[in-house]
């Protein structure tokens, strides 16, 4: 048997397609909200795998679900169904507006399914040219050609032209701009209740209500991309529940599997009928392993204790960040909901969000950016209070270094 090879960070540059620029350390182990690198250095995790590790690392509930299912059935393909996928579909439909679910492996795939559903809905409507999609500047919906075009960040899409047509972008939170372009040719409007990658920017409730009215008036589908905001991240099970606005289609991924890849598109009975046998599909989507883990993770999060705990932790984070900012005034505002938090840098520190997270890593804290001017925290939904306190102390040291 071969000896296990020694792996170093340089091997990434050697063997990997260079679409990422990972940190110069390699993480090898995690427990709760702490992780360790190859050298044994410990970090507190405020990044949460980009809002994925909703129960932190190596949570017993997820481990038990995975290991139990791993001894039974891994994959059978979509010519057959399985028990975990049906249980998960029941949990999702019982807990939301939805009546039908399509499972995929990622947020991009969930959004791809939603956009394809919308196009087919428009094409089946009998209204000529009803194929236009309205999306928003600075949005992020994934990296497939369709979803990256729907995303409102040309830096991610312009190199891959020609792009799919019929997608128009307007300013986020600007209802008048949306009203000017939504018409009877619109088949869908896709929006994030909080723009995550776009800077942790919450939608005004009146804006979302206005989009709902415009979609109703023009017989267009309202799609909520809740890939980042879903499964407890905002303190509600899904962010739409904070707004009194119910979408026609909702996409969910990230936290749904707590670290195991899974995504889903949720919709109503009436709209699900638009997609018929063979009109869309996936090989891995809804596989028993992913669904078994997601069942356990979703069930654990979908409880008053966890969801109320997210709101309490939000207050603790904001108070801690504001205390740091009182000493070292580098942030113009702290925004977001629940444990999707954005610290917006003042103009004099514009463009330095990555510098802050690099310094934080040196101090033993994992954090994210959301664009060049916002430091983003998306930790475990059940991160212990002690880890929040210690993590913010490390963050303060990083901010102090930035100022100096």
The CATH class of the largest domain, by name, is Alpha Beta
Give Rg in angstroms. 21 Å
Helix content: 25-40%
Number of domains: 2
Quaternary organization: single chain
CATH superfamily of the largest domain: Type I PLP-dependent aspartate aminotransferase-like (Major domain)
| Number of helices, counting only DSSP H or I runs of 4 residues or more | 14
Determine the strand fraction and express it as a percent band.
15-25%
Strand order of the largest sheet: 4-12-11-10-7-5-6
The appropriate CATH architecture of the largest domain is 3-Layer(aba) Sandwich
Parts with pLDDT < 50 across at least 5 consecutive residues: none
CATH topology value of the largest domain: Aspartate Aminotransferase, domain 2
For the biggest sheet, the summary is: 7 strands, mixed
Report the structural category.
Answer: alpha/beta
Give the number of DSSP strands: 17
Shape: globular
Ends distance:
53 Å
Mean pLDDT metric: 97
Description:
The chain has 404 residues and is of the alpha/beta class. It folds into 2 domains: 10-58 and 304-403, Alpha-Beta Complex (Aspartate Aminotransferase, domain 1); 73-301, Aspartate Aminotransferase, domain 2. Helix content is 38%, strand content 18%. The protein has 14 helices and 17 strands. The chain has helices at 10-15, 48-51, 60-70, 83-95, 107-124, 145-150, 154-157, 175-181, 205-217, 269-272, 288-301, 304-327, 353-362, 385-403, and strands spanning 27-31, 34-37, 42-45, 100-104, 132-136, 167-170, 186-191, 194-195, 201-202, 221-225, 249-252, 263-267, 331-337, 340-345, 365-366, 368-369, 374-377. The strands form 4 sheets. Strands 4-12-11-10-7-5-6 form a 7-stranded mixed sheet, sandwiched between helices. A 4-stranded mixed sheet has the order 1-2-3-15. Helix 3 (60-70) runs antiparallel to helix 11 and helix 12 (304-327) runs parallel beside helix 14 (385-403). The chain is globular. The mean pLDDT is 97.
């Amino acid at each position: 048997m071969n000896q296990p090879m020694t792996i170093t960070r340089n091997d990434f540059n050697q063997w990997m397609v260079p679409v990422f620029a990972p940190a110069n350390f390699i993480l090898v182990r995690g427990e709760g909200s702490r992780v360790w690198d190859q050298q044994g250095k410990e970090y507190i995790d405020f990044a949460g795998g980009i809002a994925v590790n909703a129960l932190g690392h190596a949570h017993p509930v997820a481990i038990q679900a995975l290991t139990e299912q791993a001894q039974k059935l891994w994959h059978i393909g979509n010519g057959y169904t399985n028990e975990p996928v049906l249980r998960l579909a029941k949990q999702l439909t019982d807990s939301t507006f939805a009546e039908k679910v399509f499972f995929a492996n990622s947020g991009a795939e969930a959004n791809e399914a939603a956009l394809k559903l919308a196009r087919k809905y428009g094409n089946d409507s009998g209204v000529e040219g009803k194929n236009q999609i309205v999306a928003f500047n600075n949005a992020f919906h994934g990296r497939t050609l369709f979803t990256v075009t729907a995303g409102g960040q040309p830096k991610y899409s312009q190199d891959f032209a020609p792009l799919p047509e019929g997608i128009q972008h307007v300013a986020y939170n600007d209802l008048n701009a949306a009203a000017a372009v939504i018409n009877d040719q619109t088949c869908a409007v896709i929006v994030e209740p909080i723009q995550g990658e776009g800077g942790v920017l919450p939608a005004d409730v009146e804006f979302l209500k206005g989009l709902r009215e415009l979609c109703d008036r023009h017989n267009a589908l309202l799609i909520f991309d809740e890939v980042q905001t879903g499964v407890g991240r905002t303190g509600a099970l899904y962010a739409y529940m904070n707004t009194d606005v119910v979408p026609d289609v909702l996409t969910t991924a990230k936290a749904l599997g707590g670290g195991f890849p899974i995504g889903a598109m949720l919709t109503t009975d009436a709209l699900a009928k638009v997609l018929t046998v063979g009109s869309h599909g996936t090989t891995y989507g809804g596989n028993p392993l992913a669904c078994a883990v997601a069942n356990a993770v979703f069930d654990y999060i979908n409880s008053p204790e966890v969801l109320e705990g997210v709101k309490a932790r939000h207050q603790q984070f904001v108070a801690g960040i504001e205390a740091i900012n009182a000493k070292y005034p580098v942030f113009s505002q702290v925004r977001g909901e629940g444990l999707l938090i954005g610290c917006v840098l003042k103009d004099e520190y514009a463009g330095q969000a990555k510098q802050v997270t690099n310094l934080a890593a040196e101090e033993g804290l994992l954090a994210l950016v959301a664009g060049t001017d916002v430091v983003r925290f998306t930790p475990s939904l059940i991160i212990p209070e002690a880890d929040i306190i210690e993590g913010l102390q490390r963050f303060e040291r990083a901010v102090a270094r930035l100022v100096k």
